[in-house]
Amino acid sequence: MSEIILDSVLTCPACGHMKWETMPEDACQWHYECESCHTMLRPKAGDCCVFCSYGTVACPPMQEAPGFCCGT
C-alpha cells in the first residue's frame, strides 16, 4: 500500500486562486470558501469532495479505495 498524501493545491474555478491545504484524513470536505473571491466551492457531479474536484490530489478516502468514498 502506498503512502497517503495529505496535502493538495486547491484551485478556484472562479478566479484561479491556488492554495495549499491539508486534507482531513478520514472524511470528505463538501464545502470550501475561496479566500480570494469568496466563492463557495462544492464538489462537481460525480465527485465526493472539493479536493477530488479542484485539488491536485484526490482525498485520502479515494486514495485508499478508488471509487469508494464517503460521498459515493
- Name the beta content range: 15-25%
Describe the main β-sheet briefly: 2 strands, antiparallel
How many discrete domains? 1
In angstroms, what is the radius of gyration? 12 Å
> Which structural class should the secondary elements be placed in?
alpha+beta
Report on the architecture of this protein.
With 72 residues, this protein is of the alpha+beta class. The chain has one domain (7-64). The chain contains 2 helices and 4 strands; from the N terminus they run ββββαα. The chain has helices at 50-54, 60-64, and strands at 7-11, 18-22, 32-33, 40-41. The chain has a two-stranded antiparallel ribbon with strand order 1-2. A hairpin with a 6-residue loop joins strand 1 and strand 2 (18-22). The model has no long low-confidence stretch (mean pLDDT 90). InterPro entries: GDCCVxC.
Give a quick summary of the entry.
This protein is of the alpha+beta class and 72 residues long. It has 2 helices and 4 strands. The two termini are 22 Å apart.
Any key phrases for this structure?
72 residues, alpha+beta, two-stranded antiparallel ribbon, 2 helices, GDCCVxC
Task: Outline the fold blueprint.
Elements: E1 7-11, E2 18-22, E3 32-33, E4 40-41, H1 50-54, H2 60-64
Antiparallel strand pairs: 1-2, 3-4
InterPro entries: GDCCVxC (IPR047677)
